Amino acid sequence: MSVVQDKYLIRVSDDIPSLEECNTFVSDPSCGAISSFVGITRDNFQNKKVIMLSYEGYVPMAEKELKKLCVEANEKFASIKRIAIVHILGDCPVEAASVIICASSPHRREAMHCVEFLIDELKARIPIWKREIYEDGDGESVWKENVEWHEGKQRRVMVKVER
């Protein structure tokens, strides 16, 4: 596990901690709230049967950017005690977790808003790419771009082109 300053658990790997492990990391006796988000692979997209997602990324850069994001979240939500943010690389079958985010704080509101901020910003800024693999017999797959909202506008980010 990559732990930064005992305040952040950050990991981008083919083997990520479980939700329980992330919750345990962020747990603190001074906190009455732990908020979490788990992103899982769904089995469909636009009438196509998805059999798995596959993720790629440059781990040192992704983890460095996740640390910056955690620091930013801590500045924005001052009462946050600890944050765990982990993302899988490689294949992620249907119903498996690809990303887990947990945050603890003395009260629920900051923990909930922090987790929402973290997942939105992760999708918009962190260099991790996703390929959807479909069950259509010929191994069809599509690299997906992240399109996220920022300041009320939809923006395109992180596009990986296959050549």
UniProtKB/TrEMBL annotation:
It comes from the Eukaryota. It catalyses: 2 [molybdopterin-synthase sulfur-carrier protein]-C-terminal-Gly-aminoethanethioate + cyclic pyranopterin phosphate + H2O = molybdopterin + 2 [molybdopterin-synthase sulfur-carrier protein]-C-terminal Gly-Gly + 2 H(+). One of its GO terms (cellular component) is molybdopterin synthase complex. GO terms for molecular function: molybdopterin synthase activity. It is found in: Cytoplasm. GO terms for biological process: Mo-molybdopterin cofactor biosynthetic process. SUPFAM superfamilies: Molybdopterin synthase subunit MoaE (SSF54690). Its EC number is 2.8.1.12. Pathway: Cofactor biosynthesis; molybdopterin biosynthesis. The keyword Transferase applies. The keyword S-adenosyl-L-methionine does not apply. It is an enzyme of class 2 (transferase). Substrate binds at residues 107-108, 123, 130-132. Belongs to the MoaE family. MOCS2B subfamily. Catalytic subunit of the molybdopterin synthase complex, a complex that catalyzes the conversion of precursor Z into molybdopterin. Acts by mediating the incorporation of 2 sulfur atoms from thiocarboxylated MOCS2A into precursor Z to generate a dithiolene group. This is Molybdopterin synthase catalytic subunit. It comes from Chaetoceros tenuissimus.
